[in-house]
Design a protein that fits this description.
The complex is a heterodimer.
Chain A: H1 5-20, H2 24-28, E1 31-40, E2 53-57, H3 59-70, E3 82-95, E4 99-112, E5 115-130, E6 133-143
Parallel strand pairs in A: 1-6
Antiparallel strand pairs in A: 1-2, 3-4, 4-5, 5-6
Chain B: E1 11-12, E2 15-17, H1 24-33, E3 40-44, E4 53-59, E5 62-68, E6 74-78, E7 93-95, E8 99-100, E9 107-108, E10 114-116, E11 138-142, E12 145-149, H2 157-161, H3 165-171, E13 180-190, H4 194-200, H5 207-210, H6 212-216, H7 220-225, E14 234-239, E15 242-246, H8 267-274, H9 279-290, E16 294-298, E17 302-305, E18 308-316, E19 319-329, H10 334-347, H11 355-368, E20 376-378, E21 387-388, E22 394-397, H12 402-416, H13 420-423
Antiparallel strand pairs in B: 1-2, 2-20, 3-12, 4-5, 4-7, 5-6, 8-9, 9-10, 11-12, 13-19, 14-15, 14-22, 15-16, 16-17, 17-18, 18-19, 21-22
Helix pairs in contact in B: 8-9, 9-10
The chains are: A alpha+beta, B alpha+beta.
Chain lengths: 157, 425
Amino acid sequence: MSITLDEAVALITLEADLLDHGQFHEWLGLYTPGGRYVIPTDPDAEDFENVLNYAYDDAEMRAKRVERLLGGRSISAAPPAQTVRLLSRYRMLADDGDTCTLRCAQYLKELRQHRERDYAANITYRLVRTPDGLKIDLKVIRLLIATEALTAVSYIL
Amino acid sequence: MSDQPDPRRFLETDRADGSIYNDPALFDLEMDRIFMHNWIWVAHRSEIPEPGDFITTFVGPHPVIVSRDRKGAVHVMLNRCRHRAATVCEQHKGNTASFVCPYHGWAYGLDGALRGVPHQNGYGQDLDKASLPLVNLRVEEYQGLIFATFDHAIPDLDSWLGAAKPWIDLFMKQGAGWPVKTMGEHKFTFPGNWKIQLENTTDAYHFPIVHKSFLDSVDQETQDILNFVGGTGFVEDLGHGHSVMVMIPELVDLDENLDAPIPERFLELADQLAETYPPEKVRQIIRAVGGSGFNLNLFPNLACSMAFFRVLRPLGVAQTEIRHIAIGMDGGPDIANQARLRLHEHFQGPMGFGTPDDAEAWDRVHRGALAGRDIPILLNRGLAHEEKRADGNLYSDVSAETGMRAAYRQWLVAMTGEPAEETVA
């Protein structure tokens, strides 16, 4: 049974909503145990392990990132920036029944310290069907500005 | 020029006026006197290894191309066509035989020589191509670090780096016997003055306060190693505004202490390396992966900071760009370089567990310094027990502000053109 676009969009919309509303522990549960959350510095990179990324998080690093945002001990995340993100332009690139690859656009606004900033990105998801439902096995956020100067991002894109 | 500020007004030995961060006229003067009359770091050798390789970057506000010509010589040239000033290259990096201006097609060689001018007969005899190369800066290199300057009168790079050179040699031991190479960078801006960043690289005092959440995210052994404030480290003034802050004395010379136990977090990596390398080499690689135990601050824009290059670029009086360039072993084991990349990602850059908190602190310094008038920024930590070594270098404890005082002493020399002896109380 193939993964439908509706199913896939429901999952990543849930992810976006959890992240915008600070429900980070619930967010952790959306990933497979071996899943990766990646923000490359090079928009053309595919071999993420051998290049520098902004983030290359396995389950342990994702959990630490959440702890950092909720722990109150990081001055740039006490409190974390407020964010509003919109996902759109969904396209199913591949689907072999248990695994699919979905690409979409994300536009995100952040507010912190009286300053609004924004980031646009192409996001590619690899989603897999598991006994616990559809999960994220890979999320690659290719920031439009990846090769330029960013500003501090003390939240989860 | 009567409204030019007097730099002396902003600085005393143990303090600076808050406006040193936000006076626009002072910033303009800095861009001239500091960034056009000192050696400015522009690239690492590994970024342009082959003939024809180039990168584009900046010397202060000036866009430049750093290229390697057919004979292997490095050139740093203003990115500005000699005809009507258009930039001749907008790529971050690449390999080319020439730089061709997109406006009227003037073509320059890798050394900047003007090679071709379309429809040159329109100039008659009025165009001497030999006199119109891309403007070349003076270029010198030490240990793969490439510096450039507009000023052809200042002393050579060797004497400028002076007492910092042995520390650069030590820093490059992170190649574990292989040459050091760059492995990508994190680039970000913060809304504040560049000197706030310059100070931070020689500020051990902030580490346990600002980086609590980073320390929470590492194992106990690493936390203990990073618990250096109050330890036996030191900060030393190396002259010319350079300073070194030794946080972890055991990690100054990475080729020493090879018998020391391998930290727990590297045991798995050591086991994997042992399949290919003899025990001594494994230990050398592991120590290199962990990085150096010191920050070397080179005035005004480069730091060899524990395990990476920190490069700053002033964008405006209240806007600064920082690059954290990852480094690794050129030809070394992939798994060791991967480990270095993951360590870099963990702390550095706009999404690391360390840098965003640093940036928050710098941001707040800049905004806070706008409050009130005539309120000093204190630079006196560690002064009470600061001493002189036999060679005359000032030093104090690891959390002393000795490195900041060193940088500001050179700042005043550069800004006034007067030697340090006459400007320091």
